[in-house]
Amino acid sequence: xxxxxxxxxxxxxxxxxxxxxxxxxxxxxxxxxxxxxxxxxxxxxxxxxxxxxxxxxxxxxxxxxxxxxxxxxxxxxxxxxxxxxxxxxxxxxxxxxxxxxxxxxxxxxxxxxxxxxxxxxxxxxxxxxxxxxxxxxxxxxxxxxxxxxxxxxxxxxxxxxxxxxxxxxxxxxxxxxxxxxxxxxxxxxxxxxxxxxxxxxxxxxxxxxxxxxxxxxxxxxxxxxxxxxxxxxxxxxxxxxxxxxxxxxxxxxxxxxxxxxxx
Length: 263
Hints:
- 34% of the residues lie in helices and 20% in strands.
- It has 263 residues and is of the alpha/beta class.
- Helix 1 packs across helix 9 and helix 6 packs antiparallel against helix 7.
- It starts with 15 loop residues before the first strand and ends with a strand.
């Protein structure tokens, strides 16, 4: 029996997606999921994973490997290249979909092009979002928001002590603790749904304490919305298929793929 032709006006069925993402984007991703017709099972990982890229990459790979075969249409990774945390990731059966982004600021500005424009026109800017502020509170560090001290480096500090000894760890903390000297402006990326969270006042206090200028810019969820809606043009997203691994491209594409070992 010949099947009836499909009505081109009939919507395609919703996709079932597995989302593995950094908790720094929990509000923005949740908002985009609520607007998407697709169904998303979400696994938000501790923002502290960025502090140790090598071990964190292994943990992200474990989350990918735990996804059952045949259940999801795609696995969406909510990470930018972020200190090469994505490099080497593979998938055994379900395609990975990754935004082309140097870091998560691209997610909040809407595209890698807008990110690059802001980077060029706003040198010396440190970007703040709801997630940046809230992750520190989740990790029990709300009282240190006004400080740029060794506390900012705690996820690395104990590893440095074990690897290099206390004296060298203190030296590294002092050097790394001077990161704020490279910035002169704090930029809050805000959205309509974050206006009642008191973020502006928090970031203004941070900027005042560090002697920075304060600026607020409007965020853009286009990239995250397309990601969750299943709209994945090559210029904005890298699809990683079974037998491939993620590589850094060091060009405008940011990430690419190569055959995985043994593929």
